[in-house]
């Protein structure tokens, strides 16, 4: 016990007598610069904006793209000139427009087409504003089309009404909710 006490006193005295020059100095951070510059875990740099589209393709977009055993086909159109449409194939340029490459995507509207004209290249995508519009003959999602009236068709017996079309009933939004019964009018309780 006495030796442990004297040992602890010796340690305290040794610590108090330590000089500042014996302590390690703060290391310079510059010694890690090489590791930071060549680190595989570096923070990704900011996304570079795509190069400006050349003037010849300023208003162009991909209207349609299809794969074929004879060669891929792309329809390009202009948002400024509604009459402008070019039907391009990977085999032959048309009116100076040619397909340089196609990046196919399984997602609708994600395919990218790089076209060329007079030595200039531009990457075109689908026009997203057109993709989000409802089809002219197809109602928008959630809109129920009007049901046609029960019209007699040729070949039917004009004296016998046609079958009534099957109409689905209204679906409740909250089927768990129990409707509150209302008392009939004029009945006392």
Descriptive terms for the model:
single chain; SH3 type barrels; three-stranded antiparallel sheet; flat
**What would you say the CATH architecture of the domain at 55-131 is?**
Roll
**How many DSSP H or I helices?**
3
What is the structural class?
alpha+beta
Strand composition percent: 15-25%
Number of β-strand runs: 6
- Strand order within the widest sheet? 1-2-3
The biggest sheet, with number of strands, parallel, antiparallel or mixed sense and barrel status, is:
3 strands, antiparallel
Shape: flat
Gyration radius from CA atoms, angstroms? 39 Å
N to C succession of SSEs: HHEEEEEEH
Mean pLDDT: 75
N-to-C span: 95 Å
From the 3D structure, determine the CATH topology of the domain at 55-131: SH3 type barrels
CATH class of the domain at 55-131: Mainly Beta
Low-confidence stretches: none
Percent of residues in helices:
10-25%
Please tell me about this protein's structure.
With 189 residues, the chain is an alpha+beta fold. It has a domain of 77 residues: SH3 type barrels. Helix content is 13%, strand content 19%. The chain contains three helices and six strands. A three-stranded antiparallel sheet has the order 1-2-3, with no helix packed on it. Strands 4-5-6 form a three-stranded antiparallel sheet, with no helix packed on it. Strand 1 and strand 2 form a beta hairpin. The longest helix is centred in the first third of the chain and has 16 residues. The mean pLDDT is 75.
List the SSEs and their pairings:
Elements lengths: L1 H16 L15 H5 L22 E7 L6 E6 L6 E5 L8 E6 L8 E6 L2 E5 L3 H4 L58
Antiparallel strand pairs: 1-2, 2-3, 4-5, 5-6
């Amino acid at each position: 016990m006495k030796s442990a006490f004297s040992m602890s006193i010796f340690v305290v005295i040794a610590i108090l007598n330590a000089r500042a020059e014996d302590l390690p100095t703060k290391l310079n951070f510059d010694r890690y610069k090489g590791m930071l510059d060549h680190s595989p875990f570096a923070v990704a740099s900011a996304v570079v904006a795509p190069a400006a589209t050349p003037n010849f393709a300023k208003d162009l977009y991909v209207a349609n793209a299809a794969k074929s055993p004879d060669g891929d086909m792309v329809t390009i159109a202009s948002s400024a000139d509604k009459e402008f449409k070019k039907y391009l194939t990977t085999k032959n340029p048309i009116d100076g427009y040619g397909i340089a490459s196609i990046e196919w995507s399984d997602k609708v509207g994600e395919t990218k087409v790089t076209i060329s004209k007079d030595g200039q290249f531009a990457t075109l995508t689908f026009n997203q504003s057109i993709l989000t519009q409802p089809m002219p003959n197809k109602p928008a999602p959630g809109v129920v089309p009007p049901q046609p009236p029960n019209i007699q068709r040729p070949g039917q017996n004009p004296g016998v009404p046609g079958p009534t079309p099957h109409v689905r009933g209204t679906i409740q939004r909250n089927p768990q909710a129990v409707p509150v019964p209302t008392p009939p009018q004029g009945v006392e309780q």
